[in-house]
């Protein structure tokens, strides 16, 4: 009994959970992971994180950046998703602005809420959570998908705090508080591959919805990594008066999808040194991880100031005759 107790104590769950804001870094047609070097890429993305972001990224970006839009000053990772547009019945498109999450400090410009949790909020499953290594990259979902995807959800917001129900596709009615897109990444790694050609086969997904207990990692992908998730809040409410009379959903993602099954997200790891591992080994929760306990953090004005140059130089605002990059449609 005593032995068992001691063994359990050694792997005692460290219950760190990170939830933090990252302001918008840039909104451009770039995709250094799936279309490296291509300027412009096929569709528009909204990107947050470190300023090493550029059309073709290689190496350890945690060592390349000089600023980040995230609250944790050592997190030079890049996080991105597609962008939402409103399609008017007259055929014109307008980009849907991104709202700040009211669970975060006020004043953050656009961007996303990023989570790194253990197996779930209540348990690490008695497994050490291993940080992603330098050079690690992955995607979840794909623009070509035409059926429901694991861990990728839409929430019709009543207020900014609404979190349920999670929908597998775009809401089909006007949402009073906007729409939230949620991207949960797989958390089980094969332990070997930093970034395979498909950006996905090195990872295994044990999650379905929300932040539920995700079960053990399989033998093929035995290494439990942090459960990474993004939340993005889209200010769709300002288009409510222009909702089509036939009741059809007027919102469309930047790759031309108004159903939502092609929703996808990208991640390039870029935490400096062992900072993410130190955080996951601690027991801090959310903003209690700031101010050196154990992570260095920065104020909102510094987050908002970090940016990258406009590599593409196309107009993405105002009423547009087509989605950026979709002129052949
Ligand atoms: C990206 O940069 C790397 C390193 O400089 C280079 O080897 C590679 O060919 C580049 N890829 C593209 C598609 O430009
Ligand atoms: C569509 O409607 C919007 C909003 O009224 C307007 O600004 C835009 O110019 C219209 N587009 C066309 C092609 O008429």
From TrEMBL:
Residues 1-16 form the signal peptide. This is DUF1996 domain-containing protein. Residues 31-271 form the DUF1996 domain. It comes from the Eukaryota. Keywords: Signal. Pfam families: DUF1996 (PF09362).
């Amino acid at each position: 009994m005593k032995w068992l107790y001691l063994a359990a104590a050694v792997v005692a769950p460290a219950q760190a959970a990170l939830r933090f804001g990252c302001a918008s870094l840039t909104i451009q047609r770039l995709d250094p992971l799936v279309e490296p070097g291509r300027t412009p890429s096929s569709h528009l993305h909204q990107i947050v994180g470190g300023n090493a972001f550029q059309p073709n990224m290689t190496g350890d970006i945690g060592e390349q950046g000089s600023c980040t839009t995230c609250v944790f000053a050592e997190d030079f990772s890049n996080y991105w998703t597609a962008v939402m547009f409103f399609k008017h019945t007259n055929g014109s498109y307008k980009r849907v602005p991104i709202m700040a999450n009211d669970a975060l400090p006020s004043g953050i410009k656009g961007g996303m809420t990023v989570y790194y949790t253990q197996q779930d909020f209540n348990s690490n499953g008695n497994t050490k959570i291993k940080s992603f290594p330098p050079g690690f990259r992955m995607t979840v979902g794909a623009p070509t998908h035409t059926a429901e995807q694991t861990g990728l959800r839409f929430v019709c917001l009543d207020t900014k705090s609404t979190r349920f129900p999670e929908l597998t596709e775009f809401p089909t009615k006007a949402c009073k508080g906007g729409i939230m897109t949620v991207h949960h990444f797989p958390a089980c790694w094969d332990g070997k591959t930093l970034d395979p050609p498909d950006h996905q086969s090195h990872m295994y997904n044990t999650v379905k919805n929300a932040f539920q207990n995700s079960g053990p990692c399989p033998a093929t992908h035995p290494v439990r990594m942090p459960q990474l998730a993004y939340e993005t809040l889209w200010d769709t409410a300002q288009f409510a008066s222009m909702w089509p009379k036939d009741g059809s959903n007027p919102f469309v993602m930047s790759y031309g999808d108004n159903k939502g099954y092609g929703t996808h997200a990208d991640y390039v790891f870029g935490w400096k040194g062992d900072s993410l591992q130190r955080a996951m080994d601690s027991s801090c929760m959310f903003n209690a991880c700031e101010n050196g306990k154990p992570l260095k953090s920065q104020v909102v004005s510094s987050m908002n100031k970090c940016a990258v140059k406009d590599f593409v130089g196309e107009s993405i605002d105002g009423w547009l005759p087509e989605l950026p990059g979709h002129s052949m449609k």
